[in-house]
Amino acid sequence: MKKIIHTLLLLVLLPCAQSASAAPDSISLPGGAKERTYLVSQLTHIADPVLLALSRNELKATMPVEARAGQEADRKKYTYLEAFGRLVAGMAPWLELGPGNNDEGRLREKYILLVRKCLHNATDPQSPDFMNFNNGSQPVVDAAFLAQALLRAPTQLWDPLDSATKTNVINAFVSSRVITPGFNNWLLFSAEVEAFLIKATGQGDKMRIDYAVRQMMEWYKGDGLYGDGADFHFDYYNSYVIHPMLLDVLQVMKEQNKYADFYDRALKRSQRYAEILERLISPDAIYPAIGRSLAYRFGAFQVLGEIALMHQLKEIDPQQVRSALYAVIKNQVEAPGTFDKNGWLQIGFHGHQPGIGEGYISTGSLYLCSEGFLILGLPADDLLWTRPDEEWTQLKASKGESFPIDHAISD
Hints:
The protein has 17 helices and 2 strands. By secondary structure, the chain is an all-alpha fold. A two-stranded antiparallel sheet has the order 1-2. Helix 2 (about 30-55) crosses helix 15. The two termini are about 15 Å apart.
């Protein structure tokens, strides 16, 4: 399996390296402070339609639902929780920095208060925007992303909530237990919810966690890559779901004095997968359109951002990650058609490409792209932001510059 994966990666990366001769000169890197300002502006631009509508209890009334023809009515059952949970999961590390006395700090305060109001409206059974946490199978997915957000920003998004809202949130999560997850990456969705419940209340279903953890460890294929179930899938689900949620769950359980050895192994694998993701970024800041759910756009780089956020990068410099993610995000958000006339995301990988939306994709699904902004959780004085720009691996390679040799890992 390892040899197959390496061969496939070479086939993916070779065209990127060969086609780069005209690309490097088009890349302009303005420096950490300007890149941070740009990324904050894009994150809030993406967030505004969702959070402003939900804070007014108008999300269901105003949010468009783009989906595959004939699937619109079905996806309306799930799309609102998708939009909210996925969006806030990516915003949470930035919000956890808390309010501040500068422009960015005041902006964070605005969005912290907005998200708290949205948490109330999304989980209040009397609210017009009360969300579906238990009807059908999809809600367990986005309950997990919402749980991820609260695990990432406890001091700003969970601790200050009033007791009634906390009760509603907990009840909503507990209600998702009626859903049986699929025998694949979905096991981690149930585990993520239970990990949050343990963190917040001291009570959670540890059997769901144990089952998910042990299955994922069994499904590991080597060199930083897990199977999605027993089979390996060449897509970005290792980044969308598997590595981040496995680390989340194992971190909570490590605090319970369990699975410390599993956590260490999972972290090492995530570090390796972050290196792979960084090398997938071509000299002109695109990446291979491989696998399903490409409409999640730069959410594909969640693991790269998370490992940088954790200060756990091994073979990559932090400013290299900053430069690469800035270029990828800029490339995609500025593509014509990424947003509709009212600022809502539209289905696509680069611009508006409704044909790439699988049957489970709708407008709300697209907000998983927010997972690409995790590095904003590092404060502006962190070395990731203050060091000079550094080109990413493929850009260096394409220009004839020195770059590190790549190598596999073994447990």
